[in-house]
Structures are given as structure tokens and as C-alpha cells.
Amino acid sequence: MYTSKLNRETDWNKIEAFMREFSFAMVVDTDEHGVPQATHLPLTLKQTPDGKYVLQGHIAKINKQWEYFGKQDTLVVFSTPHAYISSSWYEKDKIPTWNYMVVHVHGKTRILSEQELIQNLDDLMQHYEAASQHPVNLKDIDEKTLISNLKAIVGFEIEVRDINANYKLSGNKKDADFFNIIKHLREKNDQESHRIADEMEARRPVQDI
After folding, report:
1. Is the backbone peptide bond immediately before 42 cis, with ω within 30 degrees of 0?
2. Residue 195 · residue 202 · CB < 8 Å
3. Per-residue pLDDT for 207 more than 60?
4. Taking 80 as the threshold, does the pLDDT of residue 208 lie above it?
5. Is the pLDDT of residue 206 over 80?
6. Which residues lie closer than 8 Å to 28 by C-beta, 6 or more apart?
7. Burial bucket for residue 110 (CB in 10 Å: 0-12, 13-18, 19+)
8. Is it the case that residue 121 has pLDDT exceeding 50?
9. Best exposed site among 71, 97, 119, 154 by fewest CB in 10 Å?
10. Would you say 64 and 32 are in contact if contact means Cβ atoms under 8 Å apart?
11. Per-residue pLDDT tens over the stretch 61-115
């Protein structure tokens, strides 16, 4: 992914938060013919005892993509929010564009052991069940059902090695256009436009004009 210096995010704390918030990612590998294979999966970001970061998840065993894990690098794409930017919001420019935030991660993938997979499933459920009125835990699943489901999935771990974070947020626009974009995004009735407006304003607060 091409990322200009202007749009490149390098603050690890911001990138980490983004990956955790938008954890339903696209996992891409290539098969033996060089054809890309992609699956959309929830991933858990973890830090290992030696300080490295990894992404853990699981995939249906019937999905043959797992057979290509480890043979070449895996690409993981974290994306959203995004918003259309109309050129009618500019004083002079006539070319519309799209603002977005996306993080690409490259790394080697390995298959998890059964115990590692069980731990990852437990972590996943605890995280996403936390907001539930009646949270369900892994221990609530009877052993027979759990074993049956474990046989149908493959756990994996991707070492986070190369990161490319592209935050295209109209950083090249002068203040008048920049803040007019924010104004129009806030007038739209969708959360993604509002989130993009928030991210833009965080980088160039109104009071700094």
C-alpha cells in the first residue's frame, strides 16, 4: 500500500488502539498458484513475554486458506472509518476524494496448539461478552460441544512485523477547506463521517487557526 509521508501514522499507541477497536480484519494469503485468498475474521492483539506483538484468531477448517499459513507472509488489513469528501466543500478545488484510516500488517503465521486455541477463544469471548447483560464464558460450554467445535476450526498466530498505517485525512488542505470539510462531515447522518471529522479535528484543533 502506497502511503505518503503526509498520511503516514507512526505513533504505535494510536495504531495499537485502532487495531483493537477495528479488530474484525481481512486476512490475506496466497495459494500455491499465487492467487490471493482472503477471509474476514475477528483478531486479538497480544503482547508476548519478549515484547513482540502478535495477532491471534481462528478460521474454519473447511476454509483451505489455513493450509497456506506460514508458507509466505500473511497480510492483515484493518479498516474503517471512511467518508466521501465532496469538492463542493472546497473554495477552489474541483476534485472530490475519500478520507479514510487503514492499517496493513505483514508477518509470518503459525498454527496454534489446541491449548493456545482454547485460551484465545476464552480471551475472545471475555472481550466481546463484556458488554452483554448476561455474559457467556467458555466454561459455560459443555465439554462435548467444545471438543466438537474445536475439531472444526484452526487457530493461528501472526507475528506483527511490518506495519503501514495510512490515515488520509485532508492533511494537505488549507485551514478554510479543512474545517469546512469537518463542518460538512458533522452534518451527515452517519457515524463514520462523524468519526473522520473527530480524527481530523484532533490533528488540527479549531482554536489553532
Report:
1. no
2. no
3. no
4. no
5. no
6. 36, 37, 38, 74, 75, 76, 77
7. middle
8. yes
9. 71
10. no
11. 999 999 999 999 999 999 999 999 999 999 998 999 999 999 999 999 999 999 9
How far apart CA 189 and CA 21 sit, in angstroms, is 21
For the chain, what are the domain ranges? 8-204
CATH code given to domain 8-204: 2.30.110.10
What is the per-residue pLDDT for 209? 45
Angle separating helix axes 143-150 and 114-129, nearest 10 degrees: 110
Residues contacting 167, CB < 8 A, separation 6+:
7, 8, 9, 100, 101, 199
Cβ atoms of 111 and 144 closer than 8 Å: no
pLDDT digits (tens, 9 = 90+) for 3-12: 999 999 999 9
